[in-house]
Design brief:
The chain is mainly beta. It contains two helices and 21 strands. Helices cover 5% and strands 37% of the residues. Strand 9 and strand 10 form a beta hairpin.
Length: 248
């Protein structure tokens, strides 16, 4: 029976029809199978074919499927859509420069070879793709020390005071923290590029009164390898992420 049509036990189809299974013969109980009509240029159910050919008598006891000699126009195929990975964006406020443009995923924010201090920073996700959570960060500022935590694009540091950033901590929260690690490293006065810190570790220096001049931030899926010593043409000079005076 096809789609409740009790008078139709079997459907004999000529070569102008083919199955969705590339010409294979479906079982007789597959009432929801569809067949390609070259005349109608559409997929039809057996009941629709029977109706179009006025097949109403129950005189058919077997049926035949013949593969057409030419292929029909392909039916649309829905491909799975891969969600883009979350993308972390950040920018810095630089001495005598002001706010720079946002950069993403490991690009350097700040300056190189100009001896200009970082004074403030914003960090946020430009793409989260429905993943809960966000990003938190705090900075160690000249004459102030460690500030309170900021998150999701709020400014850390100072503006208009000419105070240097000396160190930073960055971490994820919520579902993002369960699925990703955040890595970051800084260019510190006289030390050069430090090693990678991650997930709330300190990056920079303490007790040396040395300015931060640049920063890179990278998001890495849990279980994937950490960024290497060289990234985007920048190579670390100091393996540790943080150096505190009086400690080796």
């Amino acid at each position: 029976m096809f789609n409740g049509c009790t008078s139709l036990e079997e459907l004999k189809v000529g070569s102008k029809y083919r199955t969705e299974l590339d010409g294979a013969v479906p079982v007789a109980t597959a009432s929801n199978s569809k067949w390609w009509s070259y005349g109608a240029q559409a997929w039809l159910t057996p009941a629709q074919i029977a109706q179009s050919r006025n097949r109403t008598a129950d005189t058919y006891t077997s049926y035949e499927v013949r593969k057409a000699s030419t292929e029909p126009i392909s039916a649309p195929v829905t491909q799975p859509v891969m969600a883009p990975a979350p993308q972390v964006s950040y920018r810095t406020h630089v001495q005598r420069v002001g706010w720079q443009k946002y950069v993403t995923d490991g690009a350097m924010s700040g300056t190189s070879g100009r001896s200009l201090r970082l004074e403030g920073i914003n960090v946020k996700f430009s793409e989260k793709v429905g993943i809960g959570g966000g990003i938190q960060y705090r900075t160690h500022v000249q004459r102030i020390g460690w500030q309170s935590w900021r998150k999701d694009g709020a400014m850390a540091g100072t503006k208009g005071k000419s105070y240097r950033l000396e160190a930073i901590e960055i971490k994820l929260y919520g579902e993002l923290a369960d699925r990703y690690d955040v890595y970051y490293r800084v260019h510190c006065q006289r030390f050069g590029w430090m090693g990678w810190a991650k997930n709330g570790q300190r990056s920079g220096s303490a007790g040396y009164s040395r300015r931060l001049e640049g920063i890179q931030i990278v998001l890495v899926r849990k279980g994937d390898p950490a960024p290497g010593a060289t990234l985007n043409g920048i190579t670390q000079r100091y393996s540790a992420p943080f150096k505190q005076k009086g400690k080796k």
